[in-house]
Amino acid sequence: xxxxxxxxxxxxxxxxxDGDSITPVDGDAFGDRRPSGAAVPLSSVRLLAPILPRxxxxxxxxxxxxxxxxxxxxxxxxxxxxxxxxxxxxxAIVLPATSEHVEYEGEMVVVIGKRCKKVSPDDxxxxxxxxxxxxxxxxxxxxxxxxxxxxxxxxxxxxPIGPWIVDGLDVANLNLSTRLNGEEVQRCNTSEMINSVxxxxxxxxxxxxxxxxxxxxxxxxxVPKQIKAGDTVDVEVEGVGVLSNxxxxxxxxxxxxDRR
Length: 260
Hints:
12-stranded mixed beta sheet
């Protein structure tokens, strides 16, 4: 089942996607999803981020090909992305004026389906509602130079997800690819992850309660490349679809200068 949020005629709705059409349903993604209107062409609506999470969590260094010379951690290394970085399919990734070097990170994103606290790895997958595509956009100068990852990971537009959520997929065996201006720059399978979805959810739930709709970016593979204004980044997860976002420079200049 492909579950989307969309805007049409000034109204935001949840809908079920079937082929090239979408049928609006009552309530949100977690309701009984009874049809509330006639199907309309996908081309006639604006797709939105398929979920509005309370928390956006992400796993760092979760593929061997992304580690390079760094050691494997004995646990999932989790960081938080600000909720305000969330953006929609088709929205522009905005490069902050002083960030200098920004990269894509194509990832599978897991959506939590029910309240989750201190679950075991054996039970963790029962808390997965579905998956979508995500791009954990990263300003590398800030990520590596600041004492925290806030600026590097949480700028406005640095968390596009979509185009919809799909349930029933095997999260441990999905192909993932990223294209930069049509050229494939990343290809991997989620079976390569150092920390599986089940282990990651269990680990996080020991520390913080996961709620329905929270999302987890599951990490990127390889060595991402720099993006610049005029580029387009496409992230594709097997069984889900393609998340596509253009890249632009921030039209508003920064008013901050580091003190030291």
